[in-house]
Amino acid sequence: MTTPAPASPARHRAHYSDSRFLVLQVEDSLFRIKSKHLTEYSQPFADMLAIPPPREGPIEGESDAHPIILEQETASTFSRTLDWLRMARKNQQSSFSATPEEWKSLFFFSRKWQIDNLHQAAKEKLRTHGQWDPIEMIRFSVENDLDLSWASFAVRRLCSEKRQPITVIESRAMSPDLFAVICYVKDQMRARHSCYNMQYGNTCSCDWASSGCSDGDIVGWIQTALNGAENVSLVL
């Protein structure tokens, strides 16, 4: 009677990890992390690491002497990305703190490497960060083709904080599209508001940016200015 061959041991579903450690070089810094900490969040990283290694010679990422080199990235942004991913694995990402400039860098890095959760977090933090200059905020929104409702928050803030016309120096720092958006939307918001002073051409001290128009109105005006409609006129 033949003795049946023993069954092969099965990999435990929860505690068997096939993830390997990787060494990556970003600028002049080396990082050693588990591959799954990147591949679980980023499809481009997963695709890159799925490429079979060469049959001969050293394998990139297995040692400090032969790291995977990430070109055109900064060590500081990659480090902050790893910080956010570590907190996300523990569901603690809401406690992650960064400056507006760091969030901008994380926005671009997460968009390039398709780290969707981080990208969404960066967009939300940038939209609501109170220390960001509103003109720069609008420029960022327009140039990066973000949802226009994102920009309406900055436009309303700009019109509340800056009632005077845009200066020549400020206009030189803007693209033509951005300049058209700001001038046109401010003009439309001002036209929606009426008070005794404005009717007679006098200076108005009312908070006209907070009354008379909705976020939907602002989004529509931004779209009109960006589309370059023939009937758009700017009051400078």
Give a nutshell description of this structure.
By secondary structure, this protein is mostly helical. The protein has eleven helices and three strands; from the N terminus they run E-E-H-H-E-H-H-H-H-H-H-H-H-H. It is elongated and about 90 Å long.
What does this structure look like?
With about 240 residues, the protein is mainly alpha-helical. About 50% of the residues lie in helices and about 5% in strands. It is built from eleven helices and three strands; from the N terminus they run E-E-H-H-E-H-H-H-H-H-H-H-H-H. It has helices at about 35-40, 45-50, 75-90, 100-110, 115-130, 135-145, 150-160, 170, 175-190, 195-200, 215-225; strands at about 20-25, 30-35, 70. A three-stranded mixed sheet has the order 2-1-3. A hairpin with a 2-residue loop joins strand 1 and strand 2 (about 30-35). Helix 6 (about 135-145) packs antiparallel against helix 7 (about 150-160) and helix 9 packs across helix 11. The longest helix is centred in the C-terminal third of the chain and has 17 residues, at about 175-190. The chain is elongated and about 90 Å long. The model is unreliable at about 195-200 and about 230-235 (pLDDT under 50).
